[in-house]
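User:
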Amino acid sequence: MKNKALKRLICGLLVLVSFLPFFCFAFNSSLNKDTVVNNGYKIKTIVVDAGHGGPHSGPGHFSHGASGSYSSERNVTLAIAFKLQKAIEKDMAGVRVVMTRTSDEDVSWQKRADIANENKGDLFISLHCNSLGDKRIREVVGHKHHKPVYRTVEVPDRSGKGVLMLVYGFHRSTEEEKAIKENLIEGDAEMNSGPDPNDPASMILMNEYKRKYRKQSIHLAELLNNEFVETDGRKSEGIREQGVLVLCHSAMPAVLVETGYINNPDDEAYLNSETGQNEVVASIVRALQNYKNEVESSSP
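Assistant: Predicted structure:
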């Protein structure tokens, strides 16, 4: 390859890769040193994404999100995002917070990822509220010839409760490659045009970035989940992979946090209370601090 610095990195990768254990999608894995790493690496920018926004129509735009009996996801996530911004800036010295949304106005999925990439974010945290759709039940509406007559009706399902962490799925890896090559490997013409499938060194470099970000996303999700469960006593549905555009288009470790079920009365009250929002924020900040300490201490 033409770029000498990139050649040296590739040579190092070729040696180190032979010693890397096969990484699988395991939630109890520990954070080891990454192959693609910068000397003296520091987390400087965290992107906070308040999910959804005021209702807009058109390609690439959200609706206003989920709703509870008296509140909306777009308002709850923005309130938590502002609190999280202040807490990070207060408790994590030297870390800048970039907000993807600061008003009720909606922002498209792609624009949110663009904001994260343009600001060279080191982490992406997307805040959302979960909800369940209506469930169908059969009810007796009468009798005919001594037999019950049924009808099927839809009723609200308010049984969901607790937090959920989402990381992007492997099936969107091509889109992730595009984000990585556009935002991280800018100085090399060959990599900017896309990794050459016939060039082993080029593919190794791209795959190492993908492996690194996926591994770190999962580990950050683990830290977040542990704080919610162990510290706050919240119910959790764990960590799942999902094809969320805003996650795979952000060229950095990224986690979407479903902070609770807004259509569950208990969760809705919690998410709208000062106590609940402050607990959510505190748990996220603790997880971010732990992650930051681990990543920075693992850099040579």
